[in-house]
Design a protein that fits this description.
heterodimer, A: mainly beta, 11 strands, B: mainly beta, seven-stranded mixed beta sheet, four-stranded antiparallel beta sheet, globular
Chain lengths: ~120, ~110
């Protein structure tokens, strides 16, 4: 079964750090670009970051540039999001999602597989 | 950034009725790179349509997408009880990719 499972969310104070993980299974992880998408409570979806299969390219939405770092370990079929200098406006459910087609080299694709999400709350 | 505006905000319909959801882009989309997702409370989004009109794997044929340029439509031909949810459009033709604000389809 194709599956993505996120972990690592929690409550953190403003200015703090958190590392999210996404474990993939059921498909050849290394050939797909992967993504992080977030959803603030009661709000819509926002693309956060993408990383190509070989980690050659990483992309970020402007509001997280310089604070968040996306990475992956293809040997472990895992995706990560290192989040630093967290702000209240980063509070959201964070989803990892797979590009619909393999071999992508940019941050532009539909997402066909999603994890269940992990909640990040930034509050003092 | 390309802004996607979805209308209406809420659609109140009965099971068996036809639902028509609109997504308008602030600029013409490259190669009609427009997707539609369904999201139910407490669940992750589910891909329904990509490339404006292609159904994703396992999606029933009562869901159809159409449109080009700046105007796109998701049609649900006959609403089933499980179709009541929030629907989002997404453009992935121009960086950064962006989502619409969503349309809620509720039971009348």
């Amino acid at each position: 079964e194709v599956q993505l499972v996120e972990s690592g969310g929690g409550l953190v104070k403003p200015g703090g750090s958190l590392r999210l993980s996404c474990a993939a299974s059921g498909f050849t992880f290394r050939i797909y670009s992967m993504n992080w998408v977030r959803q603030a409570p009661g709000k819509g979806l926002e693309w956060v970051s993408s990383i190509t299969g070989g980690s050659n390219y990483m992309y970020y939405t402007d509001s997280v540039k310089g604070r968040f770092t996306v990475s992956r370990d293809n040997a472990k079929s895992s995706l990560y999001l290192e989040m630093n200098s967290l702000r209240a406006e980063d509070t959201a459910v964070y989803y990892c999602a797979r590009d619909r087609t393999s071999g992508g080299y940019n941050s532009l694709n539909a997402f066909d597989i999603w994890g269940q999400g992990t909640m990040v709350t930034v509050s003092s | 950034d390309i802004v996607l505006t979805q209308s209406p905000g809420t659609l109140s319909l009965s099971p068996g009725e036809r639902a028509t959801l609109s997504c308008r882009a602030s600029q013409s989309l490259s190669l009609n790179f427009l997707a539609w997702y369904q999201q139910k409370p407490g669940q992750a989004p589910r891909l329904l349509i990509y490339g404006a009109s292609s159904r994703a794997t396992g999606i029933p044929d009562r869901f159809s997408g159409s449109g080009s340029g700046t105007d796109f439509t998701l049609t649900i031909s006959r609403l089933e009880p499980e179709d009541f949810a929030v629907y989002y459009c997404q453009q992935y033709g121009s960086s950064p990719q962006t989502f619409g604000q969503g349309t809620k389809v509720e039971i009348k």
